[in-house]
Specification:
Blueprint (H helix, E strand, L loop, with lengths): L18 E8 L4 H8 L16 H16 L2 H4 L2 E4 L3 H11 L34 E3 L19 H7 L24 H14 L7 E6 L1 H11 L5 H8 L7 E7 L25 H5 L1
Parallel strand pairs: 1-4, 2-3, 2-4
Antiparallel strand pairs: 1-5
Organism: Urochloa decumbens
InterPro entries: His_Pase_superF_clade-1 (IPR013078), His_PPase_superfam (IPR029033), PGM_Phosphatase (IPR050275)
Protein name: Phosphoglycerate mutase-like protein 1
Length: 280
């Protein structure tokens, strides 16, 4: 009966409480994406400083929002983490936020009306997960690319009142430097540090709205031991507003919490030995 069941190292089993489901999303199309594909020097233009998303980008947001509602994902997400740049926060609140905001409801909006010249109505912070801005999951710090330089947190707080910026220590952007280009290996290390930080959170299903280079460099490191087909699936470039759910596994005891769903079973009065031991 067991002759055809040879051991295989192609599968792995992990306790559920050492796994998180992360829903990775690249931001919707930004104005810099359109011009940068025509001329890469456009990324350095002051006109694309902290680039917002385009009208097409907002249609991408609306389509993804419809998808996450239809497939039931909206009810599962416990936390939304976003990079503190205009295009990622617009995407995050547009996809995972509440409905249109109505004043006098007792809670600040996630996004005020026309934030980033979006011509969009304000978005409510009710009936949706909490939103947290995290600097570690920013795009590659590419010197001269003004599209990747952020505004002050003070300014963002006026545009996105219900996003939590408390983890960002500096009001002004001290990470972006005009003459320094972050190496890809540094981006990957930063991304993996961010993934490790996720284990300090108790949330089990987290949506992360971030950027293409950070995603690709980080996932390339995680996929080194995968089968080539899976590696390709993991590291292929994210399209604008693409959603890709993945499982994050704690293999290094980063999380020391106790399992919440385990049940110890009934304890019998007698010695409850397995049958093969009692036979011996």
């Amino acid at each position: 009966m067991n002759s055809g069941m040879k051991p295989s190292a192609g599968t792995a089993v992990y306790p559920l409480h050492r796994c998180k489901t992360i829903h990775l999303v690249r931001h919707a199309q930004g104005v810099h994406n359109v011009e940068g594909e025509k001329d890469p020097s456009a990324y350095m233009s002051p006109a694309f400083f902290d680039a917002p998303i385009t009208p097409l980008g907002w249609r991408q947001v609306d389509n993804l929002r419809e998808h996450v509602k239809k497939c039931g994902l909206m009810e599962k997400i416990e936390l939304v983490i976003c990079s503190p740049l205009l295009r990622t926060m617009q995407t995050a609140v547009g996809v995972f936020g509440g409905e249109s905001y109505t004043g006098g409801v007792g809670a600040p909006p996630l996004m005020v009306e026309n934030a980033g010249q979006s011509e969009r109505l304000a978005i409510s912070s009710l009936n949706c997960p909490p939103f947290l801005a995290v600097e570690t999951c920013r795009e590659r710090l590419h010197g001269g690319h003004l599209c990747d330089k952020r505004r002050s947190i003070t300014e963002y707080q006026t545009l996105f009142p219900a996003i939590d910026f408390s983890l960002i220590l500096n009001d002004e952007d001290v990470l972006w430097l005009p003459d320094v280009r972050e190496a890809h290996k540094s981006v990957a290390a930063r991304g993996m540090k961010f993934m490790d930080w996720l284990w300090t959170r108790k949330d089990k299903e987290i949506a992360i709205v971030t950027h293409s280079v950070l995603l690709q460099d980080t996932l390339r490191m995680y996929s080194k031991e995968c089968h080539p087909t899976i590696r390709h699936e993991v590291v292929k470039r994210f399209a604008n507003c693409e959603l890709r759910p993945m499982v994050l596994v704690d293999r290094r005891m980063l999380w020391s919490g106790t399992p919440g769903l385990n049940y110890p079973g009934n304890i019998p009065d007698r010695c409850d030995l397995p049958s093969d031991i009692t036979d011996n």
